[in-house]
Structure to design on (298 residues):
C-alpha cells in the first residue's frame, strides 16, 4: 500500500501531466530521513507533528527542484530530475548528516494519540496496516477529486498539447509546478510511512534504481489511471515475491531482476495500456454487451 501511494504520486506527473520524472525517489527519501532525524533516540515522536513536517520538507524540496526543472522538457527533464535526485543521494551517502551509507535507525516509532488516548499502536504490524490502508484510500480520493477539478482538466490539456494551452492563456508553468509539488508531497507521505514501517532509512531509498522501480510499477499498471498505479504496485510486489522464491526457481531466484525485466517487457508489448487498461477494456466490453442485450429485449 505504501508503494501504491508512491506509484500514485508518480502517475500524477507521468500519466496526467506528461512529465516523466526519473528522480521521484528524492522526495520519498527526504521525508523518510526527516522523520529519522527529528525522532528522539529513545522516545516516540509525535505523529501529528512529524507527519506534516516531513511532508512539508518533501514539498519544499519538490518546489525548489520543480522551479528549476519544469522549465525543461523531454529527455532534458528526465536527466535533470535524475541529477537532482543523485545530488541528494550523495549528500546523505557521503556526509554524516544521515549516518552516511549506514543510514539511521528509528528505535521508537511515532506515537499516534489524541488527548492522551492512543488511537493506533504503530509498533503493531496489524494496526500499522490499517494506517497505511487509510492513507492509500485518502490519497486515491484526493487525487480523484484533483483530476476531476479544473486543475486536473488543465493538466490533461497540458499533457495533450502544452503549446495550445499556453496560447489560450493558461499559466502552464504554474500548473506543472503545482503538479510537481503535489506529487512530491504524496511521495513524501509514502516515504514517511516506509520509515515508520521499517524503522530504518539509508541512502538507497533516494537512489536512481528506486525511482526506476516505481516507474516500472506505473508502466505495469498503465499510465494515466489511478487504479492502474495501485494495480501496478501490487503486481510488481507479487511478481518480485514469486520470482525471488527459491522454492520455485532454486538458485535462479537470485537473478529475479532479470526475469522481472523480461516479463515487464512482454507485458508492455502485449498490453500497452498496462493491467489497468486491460481491466478497462474488459469492463467496457461487458457494458457494451449488456447494452446490446437490453436493446435486443426492447
Amino acid at each position: 500500500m505504501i508503494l501504491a501511494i508512491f506509484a500514485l504520486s508518480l502517475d500524477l506527473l507521468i500519466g496526467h501531466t506528461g512529465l516523466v520524472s526519473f528522480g521521484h525517489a528524492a522526495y520519498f527519501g527526504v521525508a523518510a530521513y526527516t522523520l529519522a532525524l527529528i525522532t528522539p533516540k529513545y522516545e516516540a515522536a509525535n505523529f501529528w507533528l512529524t507527519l506534516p513536517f516531513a511532508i512539508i520538507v518533501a514539498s519544499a524540496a519538490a518546489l525548489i527542484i520543480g522551479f528549476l526543472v519544469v522549465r525543461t522538457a523531454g529527455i532534458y527533464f528526465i536527466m535533470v530530475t535524475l541529477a537532482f535526485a543523485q545530488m541528494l543521494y550523495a549528500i546523505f551517502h557521503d556526509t554524516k548528516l544521515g549516518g552516511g551509507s549506514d543510514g539511521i535507525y528509528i528505535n521508537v516509532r511515532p506515537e499516534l494519540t489524541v488527548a492522551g488516548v492512543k488511537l493506533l499502536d504503530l509498533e503493531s504490524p496489524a494496526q500499522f496496516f490499517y494506517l497505511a490502508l487509510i492513507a492509500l484510500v485518502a490519497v486515491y480520493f484526493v487525487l480523484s477529486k484533483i483530476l476531476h477539478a479544473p486543475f486536473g482538466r488543465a493538466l490533461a490539456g497540458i499533457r495533450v498539447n502544452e503549446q495550445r494551452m499556453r496560447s489560450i492563456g493558461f499559466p502552464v508553468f504554474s500548473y506543472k509546478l503545482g503538479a510537481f509539488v503535489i506529487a512530491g508531497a504524496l511521495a513524501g507521505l509514502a516515504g514517511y510511512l516506509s520509515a515508520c514501517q521499517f524503522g530504518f532509512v539509508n541512502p538507497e531509498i533516494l537512489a536512481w534504481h528506486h525511482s526506476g522501480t516505481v516507474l516500472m510499477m506505473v508502466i505495469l499498471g498503465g499510465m494515466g489511471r489511478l487504479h492502474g498505479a495501485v494495480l501496478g504496485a501490487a503486481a510488481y510486489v507479487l511478481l518480485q515475491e514469486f520470482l525471488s522464491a527459491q522454492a520455485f526457481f532454486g538458485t535462479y531466484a537470485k537473478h529475479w531482476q532479470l526475469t522481472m525485466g523480461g516479463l515487464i517487457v512482454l507485458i508492455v508489448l502485449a498490453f500497452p495500456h498496462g493491467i489497468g487498461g486491460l481491466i478497462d477494456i474488459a469492463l467496457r466490453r461487458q457494458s457494451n454487451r449488456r447494452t446490446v442485450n437490453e436493446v435486443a429485449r426492447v
Remarks:
- The two ends are 45 Å apart (CA to CA).
